[in-house]
Amino acid sequence: MYPNCEYCLKNNYKKDDYCFAGQKFSVIKCANCGLARTWPIPVESGEVEKFYEEFDDYNLLYKNLNLRKIYCKKILKIINIYKKRGKLLDVGCNIGVMVKESMNKGYSAAGIDISNSAIEFGKKYLSLSGHLFHGILSENLFLNKKFDIITYVHVLEHITDLNAEFEKIKKILKQDGILLISAPNYNSLWRVLLRNKWYGFSPKQHIWQFSRESLEKILKKSNFSILKTYTRHSLDHEINFSPKGFIKLIILVCAFIFGYGDNLILIAKKT
Q1: Local structure of 193: helix, strand or coil
Q2: Is the bond preceding residue 203 a cis peptide, omega within 30 degrees?
Q3: For residue 95, what is the DSSP state?
Q4: I want to staple 185 with a disulfide (CB 3.0 to 4.6 A). Which of 164, 199, 252, 264 is the partner?
Q5: Is 133 helix (H, G, I), strand (E, B) or coil?
Q6: Which residues contact 37 (CB under 8 A, 6 or more apart)?
C-alpha cells in the first residue's frame, strides 16, 4: 500500500489520477498535512543513479541553454537580496549552468550531480573543470566544507528521503547561510487548467508534488525558518500578441496576483 507521509507520518490520502505523455499515474495527497507525491514511485532508490545516467537530458538542456541561463539569472537576483557574495553549492547541477552563472556574478561556486555524463559534459562545454563533481550529498565530498548558499534548482522533487536530505544540508550550510529551493508548484493555476499536459508532473522522475504550504511545513519540521516564498510562471509559457498569447497573459497575471504560479521559489535558513 502507500507509505506513511514524510511529514506527519499519517497514512490517509486523497488520490487523483492523471495521464502524462501516455503514462498513467496518480498523485496521492496526504489528507492530514497536504504533502503530495507521485504514485507509483518513479524510480526505486537503488536504481536512481543508473536512471539519470541513462536519461541523457543534458543534451536537451544544452540545446535550450539560453532559457536555462535566463532562469538561473532570475534565481541569482533573488539570492543577491540575501547574499551578495560567498560560496555557493548547486545540488543536482546537471551540466553546471547555475554554477557558471553564479561565477559570472562573483560567487565562488561548485556543483554536484548524480549523472557523471552530465558532469563531464559541463566540464568540457562550459569549461567547468574543478567546479563540478559527480556524486550525491551523502558522500564525503563536501562534509568538511561550509557554504554560504546551497541551491536545489528543480531537484528536490526528485529526492526520495526529504528529512535525511535536509539533515545533510544543515551539516554543510553556514549558520547564517541560505537555502534556495525551486520546484514545480502542484497548487498552480496552470496545473488546474492544463491537467494532463502540465509540465510539472514528469511522473518518471518527480517523486514529490509540492505546494507552498507543504514545502514550508517540511522545511520547518527540519528546523529551517522560511525567509520568503515566491511563485512565478514557467519560461515554457511564451507570451505573444496572438489571441492564445493574450489568454496566457491573463492567466499569468491572475496566477501572480493570487500566488498560484507554476514555479515555487523558497528561501530558508537554519534556526
Answers
A1: helix
A2: no
A3: T
A4: 264
A5: strand
A6: 6, 27, 28, 207, 208, 209
For 218, the grid coordinates are 517540511
- Side-chain-facing half-sphere of 44: CA atoms under 13 Å: 2
Long-range contacts of 47-52 (CB under 8 A, 24+ apart): 48/114, 48/160, 49/114, 49/115, 52/114, 52/115, 52/118
Domain ranges of the chain: 47-187+214-270
- Annotate 187-222 with b (16+ C-beta within 10 A) or e (fewer): bbbbbeeeeeebebbbbebbbbbbbbebbbbbbeeb
C-alpha–C-alpha distance, residues 16 and 183, integer Å = 20
Cell of 246: 493574450
CB 248 within 8 A of CB 237: yes
What is the DSSP pairing of strand 108-113 with strand 132-134?
parallel
Residue 47 pLDDT greater than 90, yes or no: no
3-state DSSP assignment of residue 130: coil
Contacts of 214 (CB under 8 A, 6+ apart): 7, 33, 34, 35, 36
Edge-to-edge strand order for the sheet containing 132-134? 132-134, 108-113, 87-91, 147-153, 173-184, 263-270, 224-232
In single-letter form, the type of residue at position 29 comes to K
CATH of domain 47-187+214-270: 3.40.50.150
Q: Per residue in 62-99, pLDDT tens?
A: 888 998 999 999 999 999 999 999 999 999 999 999 99
